[in-house]
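Task card 7
Instruction: Convert sequence to structure tokens.
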Amino acid sequence: MIDPKDKIALAGIIATFLVALSNLLYSIFNNRRAAYINTVTTSRLKWIDSLRDKVAAFIAVSVRVLNPEIPSTGKRNISELLQERDTLMHQIILHLNPHDVEDQSIQQYVEQSVRLASSGVYTPELQKLLVDLRNATQAYLKKEWTRVKRESKAGEVQ
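Output:
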């Protein structure tokens, strides 16, 4: 027969084991979830930075192509600038969601500015379109940044 002190000690050991096991399982689950959220957040931040850089470069190259008198640090010809602009256009479009209204408006600004620039003249209409592209991208990136902050605080990815 087991002594009452031994029964209490055994119950304490079993309770301690169960608490430690549940803590281990909770920690594993929580760490996996945190790692996933951190990975998604990091990827989104890289995506935000990349889109910002590509839109800024697209606008700058679009202006530079149509204003060759603007001083440049390098000796690049127009065909290289056009190639860079077209590459940036496709990269920007590939960064966007084809099913989102805001993403599609940014894509339309990019495509319209390329069409307008094909005339070879830096018109006030093109200038306004590039400013609209910059402003739409700025608002879009702010919305995405707010979403990233909210998700990282709440701990749930949407």
